[in-house]
Amino acid sequence: MEAAVTTDAPGVTPGPAHPSDRIDTSVAHPARRYNYWLGGKDNFQADRESGDAVAALFPTIRISVLENRRFLQRTVRYLAREAGIRQFLDIGTGIPTADNTHEVAQAVAPESRVVYVDNDPIVLAHARALLTSSPEGATTYIDADLRDPEKILHHPDLLRTIDLSQPVGLMLVAILHFVPDADDPYATVRRLLDALPPGSYLAASHSTLEYLPPAAAEVARVAARGGGSHGMINMRDRDEFTGFFEGLELVEPGICSVAEWRAEAEPQPRPSLVEVSMYCGVARKP
To answer: Model confidence over 42-98: pLDDT tens digits?
Structure first.
C-alpha cells in the first residue's frame, strides 16, 4: 500500500538530497492520495482532486484501499503468528495510520523488528514521529526508492535493525503497480529476495484492470495527471502479477483478491474482485 517533485509512488522516487526539498503540495502524490481515500487528514487539495478524479472512474476505490490495508494486517499477523517471522521489510510504507506493520507484528511478538521504506518527505516526517517500537523490538525508517534495492539493502539503518541472515517478511503492498515495465520491477523483486535467506516471505498486492469496464482504463492516466509517467498506475493481469512469485512457494489460497486472502474472520459477504480490482499473494522462499 502508496519526488523532486513528482507523483511517484510511495517508495518509488529518486530526488534531491534533502527530503524537505522534495515537498510540492501542488502536485498529487500517491501516498497522500491513499491517505485521503482512507479518510486521513494528511493530504492536500491536489491529492484530493486526484483522488476524486480516480473515484469518478472507479467508484469503489475506497473499498479497494481499505481491503488492501486489511490484507496487509492479516498477512503480517499470519507471518508473525503462524510462520514465525520476526523481521519485516515494508517498502512503500505510506503515511502511518492505525495498525501499521510493526504494531500488528509486535502485538503477536513484541520482539519483532521492522524497517519501513518510503520516498515521500511527508511520510518521512510522520514515520519518525509515529512509528515507535515496543521496548523489546525495533523499528526504523529509510528514505529510499524501491527501484534502488542496493541502497535499501546496504543502508546502515537496515543493517542495524534486521539480520539479513535470518528470515524476513518482504512487504510490497500496493507498490509494484507504480513501477513501469521499463524499470524492470521483476528484477527489483528478485534482487531483494536474493538478499534474503530461505524461509523468508514475499507479500504483495497489485492493481488490475481485468475485471473493470473499458472506461476504467482511464484510471491510470488520471492518476498520473500533473506528474507525468512517474505517477502512472501500471495495471497487470493475473499472470503478470504471478510472475513476481517465480521460484517461491505460494501460501494458500494462492493468488486471489485482497478481499479474500485468509479473510474468513472478516465481515461477510466479502467485496467482489470487481469492487477491489486488486490481486494479492504471499509466498515462501524455499
So the answer is: 889 988 998 898 888 888 999 999 999 999 999 999 999 999 999 999 999 888 777
For residues 92 and 194, give the distance between their C-alpha atoms in angstroms, rounded to a whole number.
19
On whether the CB atoms of residues 93 and 118 are closer than 8 A, the answer is yes
Q: In the chain, what's the furthest Cα-to-Cα distance? A: 51
pLDDT at residue 227, rounded to an integer: 42
Structure-block grid coordinates of residue 256: 486471489
Q: How much is the mean pLDDT over the chain?
A: 86
Angle at 258 between CA 242 and CA 269, to 5 degrees: 140
Cis peptide before 19 (omega within 30 of 0): no
The angle, 0 to 180 degrees and rounded to 10, between the axes of the packed helices 45-57 and 61-81 is 100
Residue 125, classed as helix, strand or coil, is helix
Q: Is the pLDDT of residue 138 over 90?
A: yes
Collapsed DSSP state (helix, strand, coil) of residue 261: coil
Cα–Cα distance measured from residue 178 to residue 232, given in angstroms and rounded to the nearest whole number: 6
257 phi, psi to nearest 5 deg: -70, 145
The grid coordinates listed for 39 are 479518510
The neighbour count for residue 267, using CB atoms within 10 Å, is 7
Rounded to whole angstroms, how far apart are CA atoms 203 and 96? 19
Q: What is the pTM of this model?
A: 0.86
3-state secondary structure 167-221: CCEEEEECCHHHCCHHHCHHHHHHHHHHCCCCCCEEEEEEECCCCCCHHHHHHHH
- Is residue 64 helix, strand or coil? helix
The residues, any chain, with a CB within 8 Å of residue 213's CB and separated by 6 or more, are none
Domains delineated in the chain? 19-284 (3.40.50.150)
